[in-house]
Amino acid sequence: xxxxxxxxxxxxxxxxxxxxxxxxxxxxxxxxxxxxxxxxxxxxxxxxxxxxxxxxxxxxxxxxxxxxxxxxxxxxxxxxxxxxxxxxxxxxxxxxxxxxxxxxxxxxxxxxxxxxxxxxxxxxxxxxxxxxxxxxxxxxxxxxxxxxxxxxxxxxxxxxxxxxxxxxxxxxxxxxxxxxxxxxxxxxxxxxxxxxxxxxxxxxxxxxxxxxxxxxxxxxxxxxxxxxx
Length: 229
What we know:
The protein has 11 helices and 2 strands, in the order αααααααααββαα. The chain has 229 residues and is an all-alpha fold.
């Protein structure tokens, strides 16, 4: 399911031919994968739900990357859920099952004003002399970019130290250390990279929150001589 939602015609497979599937081929393959899984495990009701709510052509366009010509950077459902979570816990925290007219009033008088102020910050229309507010996702993006910019050895050492700092009784501590050691011995793979289109055939890129991976970031850093834009 996760792979189905993140596949896109612009993102190639990691094979010798750098295969690109069309949007229809991605949809057909996703439906076939899910149908075969449900058929083999005798999950008729599950398949009925998945087809009606997720995989039919109408619903597919609402959540799959492949339904858009450009690679979406945001998850639409995630943004909507975040908005309603804020409204519920910030604006409606004192109300139990509020009436629709009250919710409408709060959205118009409170939420929209707050959204407008946020848009002013984003568009640079805040008061002169006041620095723009840094969004949480921007801080996360910077952290991921800096992590991808480090060498493999540096990243492995940091991972190992973070595990070693935990208590020896921590669950799966030994297994995690073994995984890190095996990762250090693994030969690096060869993947298709295109920084102009910002696509990469590595599986990690497919599920990355910011569509980042270490090879893309390092190639950009090299092209910019490690200087900021």
